Amino acid sequence: MRGLISSSSKSKSSKSLLSYSIAIQFPPLHSPSDSSQSSVKNLYSSSCFRNSTSTEPLSRNRNGFFSSGYSRNPAKIADFGGNGCGFWRAQGLVAGARSFSGEPVSRESLNYDVVIVGAGPAGLSAAIRLKQLCREKDVDLSVCVVEKGAEVGAHILSGNVFEPRALNELLPNWKQEEAPIHVPVSSDKFWLLSKTRAFPCPSPFNNRGNYVISLSQLVRWLGLKAEELGVEIYPGFAASEILYDTTDKVIGIATNDMGVAKDGSKKDNFQPGVELKGRVTLFAEGCRGSLSEEVIRKFNLREQGQGQHQTYALGIKEVWEVSADKHQAGSVLHTLGWPLDSRTYGGSFLYHMKDRQVAVGFVVALNYHNPFLNPYEEFQRFKHHPAISPLLEGGTVLEYGARTLNEGGYQSIPYPVFPGGAIIGCSAGFLNVPKIKGSHTAMKSGMLAAESVFRTLHEGSPLEAFWDSLKSSWIWKELHSARNYRPAFEYGFFPGLALSALEHYILKGRSPWTLKHGRPDHEATAEAQLFRPIDYPKPDGVISFDVPTSLYRFSLSFRSNTNHDHDQPAHLRLRDPKIPELVNVPVYAGPESRYCPARVYEYVADESGHLKLQINAQNCLHCKACDIKDPKQNIKWTVPEGGGGPAYTIM
């Protein structure tokens, strides 16, 4: 039995996702020195355009990245020109025109057998595995991947010490096929830090056979492999809505409207969203995916699974270029302890990549209590530790970014199947906390889901078999054995170390008990009156930096490459606009101004001296910390226009 919808028989509509023409704009970051930076930014933005009337077929841009609208079917995009940077350029830039309409806008629809939301490790692994099975069984199933980043890999941020177990299964010849995996781990160290000293400890990570990589580059390569198999990939389009039929079965997603002004009016480049309908829909949005969270709530998937709430951490990362005499390719270092207090879980990593690059990162669990704690400032302070700063002195920061990660592990895995589809990867939460790795488990979950989806569409078997295959896989065994490490630190830093050592060295994951997580992260925030404000040192501009410098540096390159059109509806929404003034400031001292690593949230005094929350949405790194940590869950993170956000290249 062949797929009902083949790639050659999809919608015959005259337009598709690729018919969008978007005027690229680089709005100023919220920074005191914006005016002095505008000319540099305009030069940068213009340097990546190519002639919008070019008839050259769209494909990967000059850096080998996928551009927005990249597709297997060039006929769909023959009438449109790409700028080579992952955006579409309007044929003519017309400023300022607005039109309001109360009439509903009809959306065009494209039909596929499988729609996958998110071109990360899980989503692309699922797409590749589906197409591999199609070739093996001579079945034609159409597979579409939609990605909100401007390019495949643009929103991917991870450590990353990569365990190739899942990749070995998916693409056994990855070495011969030139995967960007070149630096094997050469040393593996673990330090406990005090304020002035580093105490070497036995390393519990066992990274032998693993590689130091850029996950964003690996994902780009996976995108190439998926495209070669016939997967259609649409970067630059944000899935903003789940489509349901009359029985509440998921039948696909819709992308958000493009060209809508901040006031809700339609700009001249307005294009309605597109419906992507699938017989099966897989959500692979990554940690705290907005649509994934919707289906988890709607279908009570958390309760049907392991039952406990998810818990999170915020990871902040810089990629440095250091001098050759300090660089040791493959060197891996993890630390615990200073500068965090004994009640706050977190640590750091330093991974020596290729080309004199070093990934420097800091992770803070979001169940911290002190509302004055600022994860970004803790990271800047960490870099001045006497055991860390010598490596960075004389170096240069190449990129900066931040992302939340799941830390709930085994206890927090939701039931992954819902009517019409499944959630995979970090949308479900398969991170192995003691390993500090989740890419291999995300990929494997995508592969297992693909095999179940294929059997559902080709043989008629129930999709619920995915849950059974997940529980019988090495993912389940790995996460079960690691289940008690993270909740052990609910008892404090040193009790957590002792319990973790017991689990790792003696019980080896076979303990007869399963520890529970504490309160959800937003409930863990204590009242400000119980703490003193933290006086963080001023950045020196050499090793430590303020937030505007991290988002943007004064040269022809950006550290985060973050970009949003400022004239669009806010994608960060307050459920109750009064809560910041009535609750967050008087009770918690405005914690959103500190837990956000991009200065999106600022309290500004009005004419009468009252503090008002100002949201600088254009700075957003899509880390999702605000959606998780706000004490009253008053902030709702939604997708902005497709193509907005960071544009990581070596993260």
From TrEMBL:
**Pfam families associated with the record:** ETFQO_UQ-bd, Fer4_ETF_QO, NAD_binding_8
Q: Which reaction does it catalyse?
A: a ubiquinone + reduced [electron-transfer flavoprotein] = a ubiquinol + oxidized [electron-transfer flavoprotein] + H(+)
Question: What is the annotated localization of this protein?
Answer: Mitochondrion inner membrane
User: What are the residue boundaries of the ETF-QO/FixX C-terminal domain, all occurrences included?
Assistant: 541-649
> What are the record keywords, sorted?
Electron transport, FAD, Flavoprotein, Iron, Iron-sulfur, Membrane, Metal-binding, Mitochondrion, Mitochondrion inner membrane, Oxidoreductase, Transit peptide, Transport, Ubiquinone
Q: How is the cofactor bound?
A: Binds 1 [4Fe-4S] cluster.
Entry keyword Metal-binding:
yes
Limits of the ETF-QO/FixC ubiquinone-binding domain: 312-405
Q: Which GO terms describe its molecular function?
A: 4 iron, 4 sulfur cluster binding; electron-transferring-flavoprotein dehydrogenase activity; metal ion binding
Entry similarity comment = Belongs to the ETF-QO/FixC family.
Q: What is this protein called?
A: Electron transfer flavoprotein-ubiquinone oxidoreductase
Gene symbol here is LOC105172014
